[in-house]
Structures are given as C-alpha cells and as structure tokens.
Amino acid sequence: MTQAYNFSAGPAMLPRQVLKKIQQELLDYGNAKASVMEISHRGFDFMELAQRSEKDLRELMHIPDNYKVLFLQGGASAQFSMVPANLLRGKTKANYTHTGHWSKKAIAEGRRYCDVNICTDSSTNKYTDIEDFSDWNIDPDGAYLHYTPNETIAGLEFDYTPELDMPLVADMSSTILSREIDVSKYGVIYAGAQKNIGPAGLTVVIVREDLIGQVVDSQPALFDYSIQANNDSMYNTPATFSWYVAGCVFEWIKEQGGLSSMAKINQTKAQTLYRAIDNSDFYSNPVASKYRSWMNVPFLLADDKLNGLFLERSADANLLTLKGHRSVGGMRASIYNAMPQEGVDALVDFMNNFEKDYG
Ligand SMILES: *Cc1c(COP(=O)(O)O)cnc(C)c1O
Questions:
Q1: What is the DSSP letter of 28?
Q2: What 3-state class would DSSP assign to 182?
Q3: Taking a C-beta distance cutoff of 8 angstroms, is the pair 161, 168 a contact?
C-alpha cells in the first residue's frame, strides 16, 4: 500500500505504528483469547488497560494528583453542557471567549444553563486575531472562564494560558498532547479524541477534584463528573475500543520522547508550512502570526477557481483531505501529532510545483 498523508481535521490520521500494533493484536488481545472489542470492561484485561492508559496520560501531561482523569463519551460537544452543569456551583454567570466556530458552539450550550458573558470577541476580525488578555472584559462574578486554546476551523491558537482568579476551562480537542502545558493552571481540560488522541467516540476530561460534586439539579447521572469519577468512568459501558487505541497512542507519544519532543516536531512542521505560504504570492493565511495554529493550517489560493484542480491533483499525489472548511474556503492542512515531517514536506513540494504550473 502506498503511503498517503491524511490532512483531515478529524477524525484524523493516526500514527502508522499504532495502526500496525492494533492490526497485530486485533484478534487476540493480551491473554483474553478474544479481541479487545469483545471483552468486558470490568474484566482483568480491560481494567489493566484502563489503568495503564490513565497512568501514561498522567505521566505525559504531568497531571497533578488532585485532578481526576475521565474517559467519557458524547464528544467535546457533550462537554459544552457538562461544563456549566458541573462548574456553575450555585452561580448564574460564566465567562466565555468567542474566538471561533467551536467557542461559539460552547457559548450556545452555555446559554442553556447561565448568563454568558462574552469577554472577548474575535468574530469582528473573522477569527484571525485575539484581543490582548489585559483588554478582556471578564465578569468577576462568573463561575469560570471557558476558552478554546486552538480553534480548529480558522487555525487560531493561543500561545499562552490565560491566568486569572477563577477556574479556567479549556476545550483542547485539537491541541491536547501537541505541546507541554501546566495542568495546574486549569480547572477543567477536555478533548474529543478524534483529533490528537485516537478514534472518535471517546472524550478525555481532566478536572480538578474540588470542582466536582455540585452538579445542577435534574441532570442525567452520566453528566455528573463526580458520578463518572467515583465509577472510574465505568458508570455505564465506556467506548472500549476507542479507549484502547487512545492507550496505544499515549504509549507511542512516550516512545517519541513525550510532549517536549512532540512540541519540537510540531513546531517545525508548522514553521515549514507557514514559511512556504509566506514565501509565495500564490498562497496566503490571514491569521495573526503570533496566533497561528500548530495543528490546523488554513490557506487560500490566489485564484479560487483553482481550488478544485488543487484538490484533485493533491489527492492524486496521495495528499488527502485538504479541502478547507466551508466557512473559510480554500484549503486546510491539519497536521496533528500523527502527521510526520515527511508529510508536510511532501505537501510543500506539491504546493511549490502547483504554483509553478498554474500560479
Ligand atoms: C472537533 C472539535 C469539537 C467537536 O468535537 P465533537 O467530539 O464532534 O463533539 C469541539 N471543539 C473543538 C476545538 C474541536 O476541534
């Protein structure tokens, strides 16, 4: 099989070594004499896997002991509801940044639970820039501040962690594990798995212990962080196969040298691609350079009419899923952890040749 590079924004590329490992042990997992998909989540083999994956994630992210790590379902979108349900804790207001498509969705769900104070709004610059933190309008009565460190669609990524006197909540779906962060600065971190962790179906939530246990009335039990934590994320059947693959990905990241190594690799990949874009008059990216995403790189062609041809030729060259989100147009290359430097180099070669032929 030819090696293709998949630039999908999600579900996204997985490391090839991980896929091979899964293939190898698919029919017979550990001592189970059955596939990992066919065994009880309460049996020895799966319990061992669950514990090991949590331990590896804690090690990789240096998660302090006073944080719970949950392996849930419902995607990042379910967290848009679970966050207010659990974190309001008697308050009626919360602060949200509006920096892109996903924060907008989080805001819409937040409004079902509380008064949302938009503390900064990037829709005025089409999600290409972020107002200085010192100018944000933060309501001190808010129960928390929710933000989206990496906006997957516009490719807008914070290069710092906002620090303030209330719990900080981060939707890290498209940036988790791409670089080192200080978990102790956050109240809640959550991420749908299908970008940088594993297959769809799993959501990782990292939550500070003192914030749980005060869920609003009339919520489903599954939405209560404390019930999930007290049941080791097994109040009901978890997404066992996705969880297993996530564990394999954590092991793979450890083998790569952990998050400091991933950060170096990711930064170099992003620099390679942005340099190619900036060095050409044919390609452009509108995002303020400081806030350009390491993970999702949208770019426009000087002539819209060439988009179709670009996609056709790039697919022929085994460079897949480069079509940009419909709200942005043009192209988008998602270059998560699993994308090797060679994939980015192949894309840049292709872009240069395409510009020579048609630019
Ligand atoms: C993909 C994505 C989501 C949506 O995730 P689901 O798992 O489909 O709910 C939310 N936030 C961000 C930042 C994303 O990239």
A1: S
A2: coil
A3: yes
Chain region(s) in the chain for CATH 3.90.1150.10: 257-358
Ligand 1 site: residues with CB under 6 angstroms?
10, 75-77, 102, 148, 152, 171, 173-174, 192, 195
In this structure, whether the domain defined by 16-255 belongs to CATH 3.30.559.10 is answered with: no
Whether 1 shows a pLDDT value over 70: the answer reads: no
Nearest alpha carbon, ligand 1 atom 5? 76
Dig out the tokens for 161 from the structure.
């962690």
Distance 173 CA to ligand 1 centre (A): 6
Give the ligand 1 atom nearest the CA of 100. Answer: 13
Give pairs for 303-310: CB < 8 Å, separation 24+.
304/329, 304/330, 306/358, 307/331, 309/358, 310/354
In this predicted model, what pLDDT tens digit does every residue of 3-12 receive, in sequence order?
A: 899 999 999 9
CATH 3.40.640.10 positions along the chain are 16-255
| Class of domain 257-358 (CATH, top level) | alpha beta
What distance in Å separates the CA atoms of residue 249 and residue 244, rounded to the nearest whole number?
A: 9
pLDDT in tens, 274-320: 999 999 999 999 999 999 999 999 999 999 999 999 999 999 999 99
Best residue among 127, 148, 173 to mutate for probing ligand 1, ranked by most atoms within 8 Å of CB: 173
Q: What is the best residue among 73, 101, 105, 174 to mutate for testing ligand 1's pocket, by most ligand atoms within 8 Å of CB?
A: 174
Q: What is the pLDDT of residues 162-191, one digit of tens each?
A: 999 999 999 999 999 999 999 999 999 999
Tell me the catalytic residues. 102, 171, 195
Ligand 1 centre to CA of 10 (Å) is 9
- What's the CA gap between 150 and 147, in Å, rounded? 9
Q: In 10 A of CB 342, how many CB atoms? A: 11
